Amino acid sequence: MAENGEPRVGVYVCHCGFNIAATVDVEAVRDEAATRPNVVVARDYQFMCSNAGQDLIKQDIEEKGVNRVVVAACSPLMHEPTFRAAAEEADLNPYLVQIANIREQCAWVHDDRPAATIKAEQLVNGAVGRVALHEPLDPMYAEMNPATLVVGGGIAGIQAALSISEAGNDVYMVERKSTIGGMMAKFDKTFPTLDCAACILTPKMVSADRRDNLHLMTMCEVESVDGFVGNFKVKVRKKARFVTDACTSCGECLNVCPVNVPDPFNEYVSTRHAIHKAFPQAIPSTYVIEKQGSPPCMEACPIHQNAAGYVALIADGRFEEAAKLIRKRNPLPFVCGRVCYHPCETACSRGKVDDPVAIRGLKRLAMDWERENIPDPEPPPAKHDYSEKVAVIGSGPAGLTCAYDLAQEGYDVTVFEKHDKLGGMLAVGLPDYRCPPEIVKRDLDFIRKTGVEFQTGVELGVDFKLADLLNKSKYGFGAVFMALGAHRGLQLQVPGEDAEGVILGIDYLREINLGRPQWTGKKVAVVGGGNTAMDVARTARRQGAEVAILYRRTADEMPADLEEVEGAIAEGVHFDYLVSPLEVVVEKGKVTGLKCINNELGEPDDSGRARPIPIEGSEHIREFDMVIPSVSQQPFRTWFKGGVPEKGEIGFTKWDTLIVEPDSLQTGLPGVFGGGDVVLGPASIVEAMGQGRRAAEAIDKYLRGRPLENFETHVAPPDPVRGFVKAPYEHGPTYDQIEKMPRARLEARDPAARLSDYETVDYGLTEEEGMREASRCLHCGVCVECHSCENVCPPDAVRLDMKDEIVELEVGQILVATGFKSFDPSRMTPYGYGRYDNVVTSAEFERMLNSTGPTGGQILCKNGKPPRSVAIVHCVGSRDENYNRYCSRVCCMAALKFAHLVKDRTDAELYEFYIDMRAFGKGYEEFYLRVLDEGANVIRGKVVEVMPAKRANGDGHLMVRAEDTLIGRFREIPVDMVVLMGAIEPQPDAEQVGRVFSLSRSPDGFFLERHPKLDPIGTTTDGVYVAGCAQGPKDIPDTVAQAQAAAADILGMISKGEVMIEPVRATVQEHLCGGCKTCLSLCPYLAITFDEEHNNAEVNQALCKGCGTCVAACPAAAITGAGFTDEQILAELDGILAPLAMESGAIPEGVAT
Amino acid sequence: MTTTTEAPLREPAVVSTEWRPRIIAFLCNWCSYTGADLAGISRIQWDPSVNIVRVMCSGRMDPTFVAKAFSMGADGVIISGCHPGDCHYQEGNYKTLRRFHLLKRLVEGFGIDGERLKLVWVSASEGDEWAATANEMAAKIRALGPLEVSS
Q: Between residues 36 and 55 of chain B, which touch chain A (CB distance below 8 Å)?
């Protein structure tokens, strides 16, 4: 045909029966169109979409030479393909057809006939103007990838996946839960046949599991979808299951998991373990560990100690396992059980309920239990046997941890210690009453067993040089860890500090700890507010002195641990706050007092603490015969002059701490690492241990020749409690719901008695106290990482370090069958759900009826007795202006099923409260009649409220108040149990899922089908289908039917082998392109590239999707959008806005009509 | 067997003398056009003075279209696309929004009341929303009266 010749437009106005003709004067529209330029024929017809209607078009093309077609009819989204096909049959390019939408957007929405007619005329004129400028286009074709993605593993997804894979195509079934089966797996019976849900579902689940080309992807969620029909690229997040496929489902792990949490599969009515299988027939049958991040106690710990794990084991009375677990990550468990500053307790979520769990006390208990019951514990064998040697300088917590970890890794480690006693600050800095020597010895003995060698009384820079350690012809160590500590006390920087009677706190403690003779005054001033000051004060008290602590701020700002302060107060230490020393008063070279000034608090300083401001004129003198400054410490760097190798450099900060790489802890000198107080400045034991551990990892990498990056050792984040804000885990009880329980206190010795010795201040917890205290743990994040399951798993399938993965799939089509969520009836307060024990949801009742449910299929009230009468309330959250206006469709029948089962399994009287009984399906009405025959009472009326019954006989009675609209009376019916038939609602994340798959949603929130009647499975995105309750409430038969229909559509597309793609694409007219590159950044598909050589943009037709954004933006109008060119759109505007022939009276003659 | 009416040219219809505004609405194919169709399927009435022009994406909106519409006699223009985040083409509607602010100032620069140009987001399920938008705009334009552009 003459497609490119002079346009000859045929206009066809459809009556659509009365649909259009009732409101639009179709004949007037026809006549108006006949007046437009290029129109050679204008007709109206009853049903243009009928064969006869299409034949009109074909005839005119063939006989009248029509080469452009305008059909004024329904929306192009309905019949555009029909009329395009008709044109094609008459050898006219299908893209030379234009639809004027005079039904959906005109006749159906206006009732003013003249106005609607004028509008229809304008729309047709617009189309006529536009179509004259249409160019023939060739549709594009793309290959159809036969692989299909099914999202959702419920009955809809399973059914479709089975059908599609049966035909030989690969199907990827993505399910976010640990098992497929969906909601149906939770049901006991199905209406109206009373088939056992599991009996009809599980065979399908098993087939799905067995089929080679059906790839089950449980615990997976689709993150993004790119591409288009036939060629989608899908990114799927595969969440860590923590159990591998090696799992044989033997269930040994269930015997050892100490954690119990509410079971989501049983609607949180019963509990299950952290390691679990959703239900006995779950597919895949592999167990799964629920882990919602690491517990905050563990996250807060610099050595990632499994606090929650051993606490859970202690709660079970499993002390030996607890001690073993502690040792797994902690080479100084005895020390930490006594003197750790316990960041775990600071982070403990139990603190949000009442007080944190006494984690340190529990560790001490577990270790004390070990000491009594396992006299000689053995460390695990070293992992490797390496030839390299490592030197550790300093035997404090950092050095010991590093030495232990490296020895376990398989290195020969030698620790050099300056003092005669091992332990660093543990030995010389902490008083024995806090850190008893036998405790340190026990930890040291254990470390020794790993093969670590110790040399005491050897000092760096004096007895050996750093350079010699690394020198192959001398010591020949492969690496050195510098853990020198910070043993140099800082002076007050006031006059008189050199007098007799002034000694630095850290020196005082060392002398006492090493048992050297040390004079203590009668009246001692300790200056400072940290733990060292407390240690000094309490030690001086034990030496018989009267002690005052002088601190420049107030008690609130004091950095010392609260228990140390309390201990000091109990032991009679006097605290003077808001006071600073100005000068040591000296007489004859000896201290006689301290000149002080009072302070007030000012604005916060850099540390965030209020700045002390001296009050003028408040200077005064206090009498003391000894002053012990205990303000801070720094590392010694006297060793440094002892010699450094020429190459590389060791750097120091202005506080004399070592400069190290933040991740690897390596100093400027390769192979020399630093950690602990020598890097951190005076810090805590466990922080030093954390650095020792990191250094060990770095040294291992260094010696194995691996790059010093991607470290795995834990670093405590600044805020470890995030993610556990309202409750210890998702769906767990919230902090305000958890019953308070007092924290165990370690019983302290009488303070007076304490002053006479250096024995431990408090006693440990008893086993009973410990188990009770441990039971206060909330199991944050569910799995507490106790590793019990790992230890007992016969096939070694547990992998607690498993991580989420991203899997990329390529599929041709996608079925979204993501299901629904049940209405939460606690939103309807008058029904008392959540307040009254025996008001249950339909989902909870389903589980109660199920033989694998919490009651083993028995219908029981909370008191364990069967109910004497049960009320079933329909339409809870459905057909309700306040919640959902729609009918959830299945609840009436499910309620009748419940009625039958209640009648079948109990002697209870049964009441159904309904608005309208909707028994619409095959066999449904018959089932309704059967249930009536069985004696169910049905009351037509909405329940007003459920309240506690006034009768006092027995517990938990409820009263249901409702209007009986059939007898016109208000009724109050006493029952033992109320079942609320909650609405079917869209999944809470439907909006987000909709965005991932480019799905629209209907006003009720369910995914919108392409057409409510003719295409209930397609969506507005080609190649994406929807089935099941994700599209709207429906029962199992309808769900299965819809899934089958989707499968049929998908299979149809697969057998076609290719997909047609609308040729609506952008093209650059190179001669017009000015090379401004404006378009490049606009294309979300990166379809536009720039040809530097010719200085023009180019559009990749395969990537372009035809949105036209670049067309609109091109300042040179060099980009054309096929099908929607500027000229075509402007011609359409012109046609719509041009005066009508009727109005102007200019009616030309000679056009065929 | 033809039922096509071979009607003679009629007398001009009795056309109401009341002024009828002319409003052009550019609707994206995926959300707003489908939403307007839904209003039709649901028979939600809206003002017949609004005529819809379909574009694939609101991002296709060339400022020229608006300028031409006004110069050709439109009294008001509506641009409607998918809600932010829901664009069928990922982000075309953001581009529209960006251009719209500029376009509005440009239109005002021509001496046209900025109220005559409106940008809305209407999803495929918001038939009622579309009808409300059309009615609101029609009422507004009626209140403003015919557009008289000084040439």
A: 36-37, 39-41, 43-46, 48-49, 51-55
pLDDT at A954: 53
- Using a CB-CB cut-off of 8 Å, the residues of chain B touching A1137 are 22, 24, 69, 72-74
**Contacting B residues, span 132-151, partner chain A, CB-CB under 8 Å:** none
Residues of chain A contacting B92 with CB distance shorter than 8 Å = 1084, 1107, 1109
Residue A725: name the closest of A344, A989, A351, A312 by CA.
Answer: A351
Q: Which residues contact A1091 (CB under 8 A, 6 or more apart)?
A: A1097, A1098
C-beta atoms of B62 and A1020 within 8 A: no
- Partner residue opposite B7 with nearest CB, options A995, A1143, A1153: A1153
Cα Rg of chain A (Å, integer)? 41
Q: What are the strands, taking DSSP E only, across A134-285?
A: 140-143, 148-151, 171-175, 189-190, 195-196, 214-218, 220-228, 231-238, 260-262, 271-273, 275-276
**pLDDT band at residue B17, thresholds of 50, 70 and 90?**
low
Residue of B nearest to A25 (CA): B13
**DSSP letter string, A34-90:** HTSTTEEEEEEES-TTSHHHHHHHHHHHHHH---EEEEEES-HHHHHHHHHHHHHHT
Domain locations along chain B: 23-143
Taking the C-alpha atoms of residue B94 and residue B98, their distance in angstroms, rounded to an integer, is 6
* Residue A4, pLDDT score: 57
Q: Which of B22, B45, B57 to mutate to test the interface with A (most CBs of A within 10 A)?
A: B57
Q: Do B53 and A1136 touch (CB under 8 A)?
A: yes
Q: Collect all residues of chain A within an 8 Å Cβ-Cβ radius of residue B33.
A: 77
Which of A28, A115, A1020 is the closest to B124 by Cβ? A1020
Where does the pLDDT of residue B19 fall: very low under 50, low under 70, confident under 90, or very high at 90 and above? confident
Q: List the Cα angle A932/A936/A938 in 5-degree steps.
A: 85
The pTM score is 0.81
Structure tokens belonging to residue A194: 């009373």
Task: Give the model's pLDDT for residue A950.
Answer: 65
Q: How do beta strands A214-218 and A220-228 pair?
A: unpaired
Instruction: Kindly state the tokens that stand for A1005.
Output: 């929130």
Instruction: Please indicate if any CB of chain A lies within 8 Å of the CB of B16.
Output: yes
Cβ–Cβ gap B65/A1133 under 8 Å = yes
Q: What is the pLDDT of residue A459?
A: 92
Q: Is the pLDDT of residue B8 over 70?
A: no
Cα-flanking dihedrals φ and ψ of residue A681, to 5°? 80, 180
ipTM of the complex: 0.91
Say which CATH topology domain B23-143 has: Rossmann fold (3.40.50)
Neighbours of A1147 (CB within 10 A): 15
Which parts of chain A sit beneath pLDDT 70? 1-4, 641-648, 720-723, 950-956, 1142-1153
What pLDDT is stored for residue A648 in this prediction? Answer: 60
